[in-house]
Design goal:
The protein is an alpha+beta fold. It is about 40% helix and about 30% strand.
């Protein structure tokens, strides 16, 4: 059994919650997720038990599994190693170039349900409009990481026979030279914008406060 096979099994058991207490697992699902046969899974489990990475507990009818301290340390070592390389992304500073949007931000930022949602989530009523930033490939990757994060969710709603989608948002510090303004980043569930556009809101008109024109560079620090 190779080292990365052991790690793959530990990660799968972690997904099943086998870290705080012994848990029963569906071996069919585990084997399917790992892309291996049931026979291979049983062999992997036996080897990890032998190596002291996991333990198996039986009540006579069912078998339960728990990741032992040695296995947990193996997972923590991997996490620490990954953090060395992803530290820039954990901070998440996104640079973008100001660009003219579709002109719909003013309408959506004027809807009461959204306005109240942003006030509760971000601490302010947004200026009626969004600042659109065009992202390069590195910034797009950081945006995708945000999309996978928790964020603050503004739930969708129905109004006047129309459905309005949910929005994930993050508190943010918007920066240009020495000018700073607290605001928010929006990740809209259904948007007409391509993936290289990031929408930013604030309690003020950012173009005016920061003297922005299309083509100017703005930095956005995500506050998690």
């Amino acid at each position: 059994m190779r080292k990365h096979d052991k790690l793959a099994l530990l990660l799968e058991l972690l997904r099943f919650g086998c870290i705080k207490s012994p848990r029963k697992i569906k071996k069919v699902d585990v084997a399917s997720n790992l892309g291996i046969s049931a026979w291979t899974l049983n062999r992997w489990i036996a080897q990890c038990i032998k190596d002291g990475l996991i333990e198996e507990i039986s009540d006579g009818q069912n078998k339960f599994y728990r990741i032992k301290e040695k296995g947990l340390l193996k997972l923590l070592n991997v996490r620490n190693e990954l953090n060395k390389y992803f530290s820039d992304y954990l901070t998440i500073l996104i640079k973008g170039v100001v660009t003219t949007g579709l002109g719909e931000g003013k309408y959506y930022m004027s809807i009461r349900e959204y306005r109240e949602g942003f006030r509760k989530a971000l601490g302010f009523y947004p200026y009626p409009g969004t600042l659109n930033l065009k992202l390069d490939e590195e910034a797009i990757l950081k945006k995708k990481i945000l999309e996978q994060g928790n964020g603050i969710i503004i739930q969708g709603f129905q109004k006047s026979g129309r459905s309005f989608c949910r929005v994930k948002c993050y508190k943010a510090l918007i920066m240009r030279d020495e000018i700073r303004e607290y605001g928010g980043v929006l990740l809209i569930e259904k948007t007409k914008h391509p993936e290289n556009i990031l929408e930013v809101i604030a309690p003020c008109y950012l173009r005016e406060k920061m003297f922005l024109e299309d083509g100017d560079t703005v930095e956005v620090l995500i506050l998690q």
